[in-house]
Design brief:
The structure is a single chain. The protein is an alpha/beta fold. Helices cover about 30% and strands about 20% of the residues. It contains nine helices and 13 strands. Helix 1 packs parallel to helix 7 and helix 3 packs parallel to helix 4. The longest helix has 15 residues. The chain is globular and about 60 Å long. The chain starts with a strand and ends with a strand.
Amino acid sequence: MAQMMYRDAVLSTIAEEMERDPSVVVLGEDIVGGMGTAGGPEAIGGIWSTSTGLFGRFGKDRVIDTPISESAIIGAAGGLALSGKRPVAELMFADFIGVSLDQIWNQLAKFRYMFGGKTRCPAVIRMAYGAGFNAAAQHSQSVHQILTGMPGLKVVMPSTPADVKGLLRAAIRDDDPVIFLEHKALYGTSGEVPDDPDFTIPFGHARLSRAGEDVTIVSSGLLLGFCEAVADKLAAEGIGCDVIDLRSTTPLAEEALLDSVEGTGRLVVG
């Protein structure tokens, strides 16, 4: 298995899926290098460097710099999805989702229902979320709890580069809208990633990160690392913890959670 950074797992997965499937397109603010640029040396691939080089490989029809309008980005993604494309839309910060909630909540999430199952909406909406970068109040929030309660959406929160690879590939291939949340503080972390070009992780399948008999700790995203550190410290004191990485909050791995709590009798949510 290759060693890879979290942000590189995002980029490589998108590139691999674009190579595999010509219907995959990406769009977002500054993902080429800035609105109106030619995509040359200045094309850093957005502020998170998760689309670097895609413009040179796939061109302007599949890598689209957008105006600074989250509602336009998501609206365009919905239209692309309905017309047979598989858009991967990027919102630079999850905090900005508020101005596009109608497109997400009442449109993308409901298309399959409104059209009686005769259509699909295979759109992925990627967002950087969370605190830790001195990005102030409007750029540091976690919005997964809002999105998790919206019928019709799948909400994914990978905590490792391997999970990014498996979950993002599954998201792009999914026929329903998927919210893909990437914590800013994880972009620079590294880990092993499977080489299999078809490696996917099904939504709703949690990962048991630590095993113990005394308490169940449930977490996701960045907080998983903190929970693992606590579990390791408690293990040294003779207290065993099941640490469960949810991976997705919708669908939720209910069976894994219930089985663990049945054994430990105690639950802590991180």
